[in-house]
Design goal:
The complex is a heterodimer of chains A (113) and B (113). Chain A is 0% helix and 50% strand. Chain A has no helices and 11 strands. Chain B is mainly beta and 113 residues long. In chain B, strands 2, 4, 5, 9, 10 and 11 form a 6-stranded mixed β-sheet that branches. In chain B, strands 1-3-8-7-6 form a 5-stranded antiparallel β-sheet, with no helix packed on it. Classes of the chains: A mainly beta (113), B mainly beta (113). Chains A and B meet through strand 5 and strand 10 of A and strand 4, strand 5, strand 9 and strand 10 of B.
């Protein structure tokens, strides 16, 4: 049973470009969380999704950031017009449901140059 | 919003010593989770706690869900060099839609051989 898969592991973008981060949850999991982690810091909540629904996006910046979890396919975190401050590790976690333990992927390290 | 206070922020110990770290919150949680993160990797789930007062062990690790449901601790006995890493507590709130996983700021553990 494969774990949470994130790709790419590393992503380099120039300022102004778009970044698309993908997360395939564990088999059978319908809940996905996205977190951002800056160097030497903790995990900051961004968004919580179920299939085709955004449940809680209170941690998402109001502009340039969006997330989706379609009926088919992986969850996508999209960052438009990236800036240097977007450089961070982005982690995805999945769970069976609300209140269930969550399992993390290995993250995507975004570098904006 | 829900916040977790994790302490200590960092610990430097000798191999063989026992370690204790804890998390407290002003909010009630229904689930407490403890994760370990190695450099460049995603957090790995160590222990999950679901009931107030629950004491759970996983090898040399022991964690407890506080009676008040507002705190949890993690103990590591007889530490070894591979215990080095960042340990995060995480809490899950009410089991209604919108519940999200809230993280502490982490405890950086260094074990000297």
């Amino acid at each position: 049973n494969a774990g949470v898969m994130q790709n790419p592991r590393h992503l380099v973008r120039r300022r102004g470009q778009e970044a698309r981060l993908r997360c395939s949850p564990m088999k059978g999991h319908s809940h996905v969380y996205w977190y951002r982690q800056l160097p030497e810091e903790g995990l900051k909540f961004m968004v919580y999704l179920q299939k085709e629904n955004i449940i809680d996006e209170s941690g998402m910046p109001k502009e340039r950031f969006s997330a989706e979890f379609p009926k088919e396919g992986p969850s996508i975190l999209r960052i438009q017009q990236v800036v240097r401050g977007d450089s961070a590790a982005y982690f995805c976690a999945s769970s069976l449901g609300t209140g269930s333990e969550a399992f993390f992927g290995q993250g995507t390290r975004l570098t904006v140059v | 919003g829900q916040q977790l206070n994790q302490s200590p922020q960092s610990m430097f110990i000798q191999e063989g010593e026992d370690v204790s770290m804890n998390c407290t919150s002003s909010s009630i949680f229904n689930t407490w989770l403890w994760y370990k993160q190695d450099p460049g990797e995603g957090p790995v789930l160590l222990i999950a706690l679901y009931k107030a007062g629950e004491l759970t062990s996983n090898g040399r690790l022991t964690a407890q869900f506080g009676i008040t449901r507002k705190d949890s601790f993690l103990n590591i006995s007889a530490s070894i060099p591979s215990d080095v890493g960042i340990y995060f507590c995480a809490g899950l709130g009410r089991e209604t839609s919108g519940s999200r996983l809230t993280f502490g700021e982490g405890t950086q553990l260094t074990v000297n051989p």
